[in-house]
Amino acid sequence: xxxxxxxxxxSKKEExxxxxxxxxxxxxxxxxxxxxxxxxxxxxKFVSVAIRVIEQRLNSVENKNIKSEILTNNxxxxxxxxxxxxxxxxxxxxxxxxxxxxxxxxxxxLLSTNMYKDIQNVNPFLDDNILNHLTQxxxxxxxxxxxxxxxxxxxxxxxxxxxxYIKNNNPDKGMIAYMAQVEAKLISHLITQRHYMKFxxxxxxxxxxxxxxxxxxxxxxxxxxxx
Length: 227
Fold this sequence. Notes:
There is one protein chain. The chain is mainly α. The chain is elongated and about 75 Å long. The chain has seven helices and two strands; from the N terminus they run H-H-H-H-H-H-E-E-H. A two-stranded antiparallel sheet has the order 1-2. Strand 1 (198-200) and strand 2 form a beta hairpin. Helices cover 69% and strands 3% of the residues. Helix 1 (2-58) packs antiparallel against helix 5 and helix 5 packs antiparallel against helix 6. It has helices at residues 2-58, 78-94, 103-109, 115-122, 128-167, 173-190, 210-219; strands at residues 198-200, 205-207.
């Protein structure tokens, strides 16, 4: 009877301990879920605004550093030549004889060794300085868009794990093993790194291979180190 009573008391203590751990785990997962949702909302808002800015500026003809070859030779007033060139270009675009640059074209141009020239062939009113800033913004936009996918996958695993803790106060060995697998997947998402980004301590700049960046963006994944 003494042993039986002790075993019962130990079982009760273990059960209480499991319930306590479950409550703590659920609390941690709730906080994690809130933070992931906040990150996803912030990133989604940034990407939405960035895409609008990029597409609008790529197709703008407001840049006054216009190339001489698109200026007419009939007027000595450079401002009027510029205005005329603007109007001609916009009318041709409106009639479908000049193209509008869309985001995927700009993304694909990252893979070109003549990126700026390719873009300027479509819109000659863009100079190198503007394209440099737009390219930097595009890279940040692609990295952020890719992180949205990663955050969504982490949220899914976080929600699944939270549900398992709620439903299983005293899980058996099989359930514990399954929960450990879900935990491992969640952790792997949280500690994911980009292995093709290199930081130069002297220049204080990141370098990267655009082929990997475009591949990740296209397939909504993040490459592992051995890949």
